[in-house]
Every structure is written in structure tokens, then in C-alpha cells.
Amino acid sequence: MNPFKFYLVTDTHYFEPSLGCEGKALDDYMKNEMYCLAESSRIVHATFDEIIKDTEIDTVIIPGDLSKDGEKQSHVGFVKELNRLKDAGKKVYVITAGHDYNDNPRGYVGENYVPVEPTTFEELYGLYYDFGLSEALAVDKQTHSYVAQVAKDVRMIAFNCDSNRETKGSIDDRLLEWAKVQIDKAKADGCFVFCINHYPIIPSVPVFDLIGDAHIKDWRKVASFLADNGVNLALTGHMHIQSINEFYSESGNKFVDICTSVLVGSPGKYRKITIEDEATVTAESINVPEFDWDKGGRTTEEYFDDRAVWAAPNRIRRALSGDSFFKRFATKIFNTNTFAQLGRKLLIRVPKEIKDKKFCGFTGELARDIFKGDQPYTEGTPVYTVIARFLKRFRPILNIASKKLAKDGIKPDLTDMLLNTIGNNKGWSDNNATIKLK
Ligand SMILES: [Fe+2]
Ligand SMILES: [Fe+2]
């Protein structure tokens, strides 16, 4: 096969600004969000401008969460943006996901959340028909999953795992069997086959394995089924994280999942993907460009980073909010303590490089750095050292948690999972890598 190059953009979360995006209601909502809402349409516009400038690559693939929350007008605005790509000669393939239909989307006007026109799942078929479905070789009507010939000898299975609120994030047996028929046909036609899906198929970092909504349901089964049937590559989104992971089925077949970040906020990346041949894929990450917004003199990356570092501790404060003595005590410690102060309370030695760092601020930096991929806190770094000591101190609690989380009698090693989440020990980059598929 010839190398196939395309752009992979995901989680555009486009919000139509005329629905209202200013005032206290927006500020309250955004306190806990690592991505941007008022800015999203400008970010999409600027990114698509960059893609349009590239005359070499003519394909753009977007695996879901196209709108903020299924506002009809956000879809109308986003379709206009997709048409700009089309008018510039790009082939565009999208799938929709959970944030694209909703009974109660809202605008933000002054102090109030105001209801705006929603979108049903059924309406998405018509709204996005021109971006994949219209040229599909096969469509699964129930989920809007489809198959497209994206290059002369390359076929893409676009799974829609978010067609139903009750079963969101799942590719069930029926859909897998439908996919198998499509894979067999594609192989008989001499095509390389890969898939896109909104939810990651492999958990993006080890602790995400413990979070049901962080990956496709029964992910080992789905990854094994695809790998054993000759599909070795998935391109995904949803978790707003940069990650590349691999998994082997019991039969020894390899599966690779390239998960890409949200476009409209930290980490703010999109990718150029090259399927070099049947056994090799290259992923290159690109920062969201400068966009038309008063960012206070900061670059786009600095602007996104600052939002992540600010919003992540707010989420923890929200989780700790309440009137119980324990919650008030924990909030006070979280807000005020440095690592040195926490270390003294728990009898843990803290490396001098980080002893004056405030714990709450650090959680923001940690969230920012985990979602950017290539997590820097590997063995030997001060942060690794202190977190490993904290985990050792809390071992009895982790042991109880591990027993509760055991599946099929296998207890997860929580210490190992946490340490491999803060430091990338995989041997390849989450951002820029050439990966073997077999
Ligand atoms: Fe998303
Ligand atoms: Fe999502």
C-alpha cells in the first residue's frame, strides 16, 4: 500500500457564541473545566485555517464530541467550519459522540443558564451526512457506525460507541459481528483496515483502567476481537489526553490505540497520522495555533496550561466541599499545606527541590502534565520520590482498595498503576512516535 497521511482532530466541543457565553454563569461553570468554551469557535476556526494551508494532506478525521453539549446552533456553526475544509478540497470523516446530543443544552447569559435548542441522536445522521456517511460502503443504522474507503487501498471502520445514553462507551457483540463482516470484505478487497472510535479502546494511562467511563466497556475483549480479526490500529479521543498504548490479545496479536487530546483546551494538540504500511504508523503532534482572543500576552499553549493548572485543583475542592469536620479539615490542608508541611504530618521525608511547593498548586501541574502525555515524573525525580513515599505510607488503605477493585480474583497493583501514570515508562513517546502494528 502507499503511505496514507491525514489529520486527526478530536473533541472540538464547538460552542456557538451567540447562544450566550459570558457572565457569572459561565465563570461558575468554567471554574472546574480544563477546556475552553467561549473560545472554542475561534480555536476551531484557527486550526482549520492551518489545515487548509497544508496542500499535501487532503483528509481530516474527527472521532466525536464535535459540539459542547448538543446545542443545535453549535452543530450548525460546526458544519459551516467542516464545509470550509470541504471547500478547500479536504475529505472529511466524522463520527458523533455523547456530547453531540442532549435534551437540555444551555447558554450562559449573565447570572443565568438559559435553555437552548437541543439535538437528538437521530438528527445527527442528517446533520453530518456529508462528512462520511454519504460515501459509506456500509452503515450500521442503529449506531450510525460506517465503513469508508479513505484511500485507494485503505478502509476505515468508524465505530459509533455513543449512540445510546444507556449503553454509551460500548461496542457490543452485535456491532462487533457487523464489523467482522466489514473487515472480511475489506481484506478480500485487498485493503488495510483501521478503526476510529470516540472512547479509548485501551486505557490511556494505567489508572484509567479503574474508571469505567475512561475506556470502552470490556476493552480487553474489544481490543482482542479487533486484533485477532486483523485490525491493529484505533484512533480515539474522549479522555482529552495525549497517549499511545499497545495491547496483545491472548493469541499474541497486537493492538495499538492512539488517543488524541481535546482541541479546545489543555493539552490542545491535534495530530498528523501516517499509516506508512500495513505494519507501521507514525503519529506527529501539533499545537493548536494562535487564535483570535485576548490571552493576556500568553501563547496558546501558556493560556491552555494556565487554565488546566487553575481548574484541576478546583475540581478537588469541589469533591471535598461539604460541612463535615473531615471535609473542612481536608480542604484546609489541601489549600494551605506545602509538601514539607504535609510530609511532617505524615512522617515522610520530602526532597528539598519540592518541599516549598504548595500541594494544591501541584495537583494542577500534575493534571496538566498527565494529560499532555510523556509524563515526566519517572523514577529518580523528586516528585516520583515523594509520591512513592506517600503511597508507601498509605499502603494499608491501598491494600483495602485493591481488594475491593479486584476482578476475577486479580487485585490491581495500585502503587504500580499510579507511579506509571505520573511517569511514562513505556519506551515510546505519547506525542511523536513511530509504532509497529504487528
Ligand atoms: Fe470530549
Ligand atoms: Fe466524550
Annotation keywords:
Purple Acid Phosphatase, chain A, domain 2, globular, 438 residues, 2 domains, alpha/beta, 6-stranded mixed beta sheet, binds fe (ii) ion
Question: Can you tell me about this structure?
Answer:
- The protein has helices at 24-30, 40-53, 72-87, 121-127, 173-188, 219-228, 300-320, 325-336, 339-346, 359-371, 382-393, 395-405, 414-422, and strands at residues 4-8, 21-22, 59-63, 91-95, 106-109, 112-115, 138-140, 145-151, 154-158, 192-196, 233-236, 243-248, 254-259, 269-277, 280-287, 433-436.
- It has 438 residues and is of the alpha/beta class.
- It is built from 13 helices and 16 strands.
- The strands form three sheets. The chain has a seven-stranded mixed β-sheet with strand order 7-8-9-10-11-13-12, with helices on one face. A six-stranded mixed β-sheet has the order 4-3-1-14-15-16, with helices on one face. A three-stranded mixed β-sheet has the order 2-5-6, covered by helices on one side.
- The two termini are 16 Å apart.
- Strand 10 (192-196), helix 6 and strand 11 form a beta-alpha-beta unit.
- It is globular, with a radius of gyration of 22 Å.
- The model has no long low-confidence stretch (mean pLDDT 96).
- The chain has two domains: 4-292, 4-Layer Sandwich (Purple Acid Phosphatase, chain A, domain 2), CATH 3.60.21; 301-422, no CATH class.
- One fe (ii) ion binds at residues 65, 97-99, 198, 238.
